[in-house]
Write a structure and sequence with these properties.
Helix content: 10-25%
Radius of gyration: 22 Å
Number of strands: 16
Structural class: alpha/beta
Largest sheet: 6 strands, mixed
Distance between the termini: 24 Å
Shape: elongated
Strand order of the largest sheet: 3-2-1-6-5-4
Order of helices and strands: EHEHEEEEEHEHEHEHEEEEEE
């Protein structure tokens, strides 16, 4: 029986495994190999690894964990969990049953792509969610933001740290008049209509196509699709 089974082998899961391995605890890490940031070309803001491809960082982390004999990395998905403290049981998708005294759940979340042609294809390159992750590389350029609710108004204010050229796409949402007035004061145009397709031109640039017939080109498009836990329950 393991001391700990870690479900999820991305940054958080491997960081936990490192400390447990150094404490000479017997650990199994279950990893599907599908981290949330696998679509991104580079990881930013991570000290010592800035501008490295995230999959390269994970590969290096796995190599470093190999020096700890108490850590076992398993390419598998946890299909079910049962039991209680000191007697947990995890069944993997390969049919293997594992036991552990404790569990760490680090499976993260999965982004749910909207049913818009070109959205999933551009996710992580020309369509991104985070200015801290990708804003520096496109600072001062023409940004687009897909409205997803009141929180988008806060993003508008935040984006001014990187650019003063921003176009907001209502995408069929009814933006309140007071927010529209604030956007007008900030010289931020609002493009009405629903997005029907996003065309990509290499790098970060994209063209947003709307059901009104309008096409709007941007240097990068920010969007915040819904997400859900990567685990099924």
């Amino acid at each position: 029986m393991d001391d700990v089974i870690i479900i999820g082998g991305s940054f958080a899961g491997l960081a936990a495994a490192l400390q447990l391995g150094r404490a000479r605890r017997k650990v199994t890490v279950l990893d599907t190999g599908l981290p949330r940031n696998r679509f991104a070309g580079h990881s930013h803001g991570l000290l010592g690894h800035d501008h490295k491809p995230p999959l390269d960082i994970l590969a290096e982390a796995r190599q470093q964990l190999a020096r700890y004999p108490a850590i076992r990395l398993v390419a598998a998905r946890a299909d079910s969990v049962s039991g209680a403290i000191d007697d947990f049981s995890v069944l993997t998708d390969s049919g293997e049953s594992l036991g552990a005294r404790r569990l760490i759940l680090s499976y993260g979340v999965a982004d749910q792509m909207p049913d818009v042609p070109g959205f999933a294809e551009g996710w992580g390159t020309s369509i991104v969610p985070c200015p801290y992750c990708d804003g520096f590389e496109v600072a001062g350029q023409h940004w687009g933001l897909v409205w997803s609710g009141p929180q988008s108004h806060q993003h508008v204010r935040l984006f001014h740290d990187w650019t003063d050229r921003l176009t907001l796409f209502a995408n069929g949402h009814d933006i309140p008049p007071d927010i529209r007035a604030d956007l007008a004061r900030r010289n931020i145009p609002v493009v009405d209509g629903r997005i029907i397709e996003i065309a990509h031109h290499g790098g970060h640039s994209a063209t947003v196509k709307l059901d009104t017939g309008a096409n709007v080109a941007v240097d990068i498009l920010f969007a915040h699709p819904r997400n859900k836990p990567s685990a099924s329950s």
